[in-house]
Amino acid sequence: MRALRFGHSLPRYAAARVAGSLSPGLGARVGPLKLAEIDEPELPGPGWQRVRPRLAGICGSDLSTIDGKSSRYFEPLVSFPFVPGHEVVGELAGGERVVIEPVLGCAVRGVDPPCGACGQGRADCCERLAFGDLGAGMQTGYCSGTGGGWSTSLVAHDSQVHPVPEAMSDEAAVMVEPAACAIHGVLGAGPLTGATVLVLGAGTLGLCAVAALRRYTGPATVIAVAKYPEQRALAADLGADVVVRPEETRRAVRRATGSLKLGDRLAGGADVVVDCVGSASSVAEDLAVVRPGGVVALLGMPSVVSVDMTALWQRQVTLRGSYAYGFEAAADPPRRTFDLAFELVAEAGLDRLVSATYPLDRYREAIDHAANAGRRGAVKVVFDLRGEKRR
Ligand SMILES: [Zn+2]
Ligand SMILES: [Zn+2]
Q: How far does residue 140's CA lie from ligand 2's centre (Å)?
């Protein structure tokens, strides 16, 4: 089958890091990602199914990997070579369309009894991501044994497979995984009824976070910070009360909360900041605009960042990471995150965030488009496998 495959090549990874620092997405030209003809992954055993991807999204975490920017932290949590792609709608042998829940926790790995977290439906906190019947890998799309969405065939465990309702388009279904990340992030930030919430960043994650805040929490005010005009229009449409450019952030928070100004930061601030960027400058901004005792929910994937943490200490701010999804005890009623995500995608019309589709052989263009999505007026860029030959 044809697949985009990420090999283990340190020289290529180093080249990607240099290229990616020159221009986002350029790592795809010199790095370890290659279009190749490879064998389909084998079914690991009973309880596994073959899935033919139909659409597979390009995520920010994929782009960091391609540009050589992801942290060495991940080294023991991936296995090479791997086929990227964890935002996947595909079809089973019988033609049923499914969305893959990519986290490779204890159930998928045949670890029995499961770790404490997986026992509670929280594979996002699994402690066995490199153990059991499969090679290391946090998710489908980072594990050599499962394959990934940027190909025409992967294998998925029964526990990873969610049927897609007949009325839902492929474009909507491919948004379920990123929507689940956003839902998990906002529900994990604590009770938000009556709160002033700032959402920093208006790519896929930020826009899904705005929609999730509106649907599942009861904030008094949602302020969205967006760099580009298309993002601002979408943020307003998805339910942000106030939409501002990055340079207007502090003024908007001041106005919404009645904070006093203290030098170049605020004496008070937003109750909760949802950071959908994850860079040194975004975390510094979070700490400048969150109120004393407030919460910063970090949804965007950081790498090594250098930040002055004095404000976090003196203002007793909680910095809370948010990875993936699992079970939302804070939802009413408590439910699996993916069940909430199917609902949110349909109700908020998140299929409109899919801006462009590409066949596999135009992968360099696709990655360039995704890496520069905001500037080019796009949100989610996906691979379209529906026209690829199957073998
Ligand atoms: Zn992702
Ligand atoms: Zn586990």
A: 15
Nearest to 278 by CA among 216, 370, 228, 205: 205
Closest ligand to the CA of 111: 2
Q: How far is ligand 2, taken at its centre, from the CA of residue 102, in Å?
A: 14
Q: How far is the CA of 241 from the centre of ligand 2 (A)?
A: 39
The conformation of residue 160, written as its DSSP 8-state character, comes to: G
85 contacts 66 by C-beta, under 8 angstroms: no
Give CA–CA dist 372/194, Å, rounded: 35
Residue 157's beta-bridge partner residues? 48
Cα of 375 vs centre of ligand 1, distance in Å, is 20
Residue 258 Cα to ligand 1 middle (Å): 36
Q: How far is the CA of 113 from the centre of ligand 2 (A)?
A: 9
What is the Å distance from ligand 2's center to 157 Cα?
A: 14
Say how many C-beta atoms besides its own lie within 10 A of residue 374's C-beta. Answer: 17
For 105-153, the pLDDT digits (tens) are: 999 999 999 999 999 999 999 999 999 989 999 999 999 999 999 999 9
Task: Name the amino acid, one letter, at 352.
Answer: R
How far is the centre of ligand 1, averaged over its atoms, from the C-alpha of 261 (Å)? 37
Write out pLDDT tens, residues 206-248.
Answer: 999 999 999 999 999 999 999 999 999 999 999 999 999 999 9
Q: 59: which 2 tokens?
A: 């995520």
Report the C-alpha gap between 159 and 66 in whole angstroms. Answer: 29
Cα–ligand 1 centroid distance for 328 (angstroms): 18
The helix or strand, by DSSP H or E, that contains position 335, with its residue range, turns out to be strand 335-336
pTM summary value: 0.97
List the shell of residues around ion ligand 1, using CB closer than 5 Å: 59, 61
Average pLDDT of 161-184?
Answer: 98
Contact 72, 92 (CB under 8 A): no
- Is residue 391's pLDDT more than 60? no
Task: Please tell me the distance between residue 252's alpha carbon and the centre of ligand 1 in angstroms.
Answer: 29
Query: Could you read off the pLDDT of 248-275 as tens digits, one per residue?
Result: 999 999 999 999 999 988 999 999 999 9
Q: Taking residues 336-360, what's their average pLDDT? A: 98
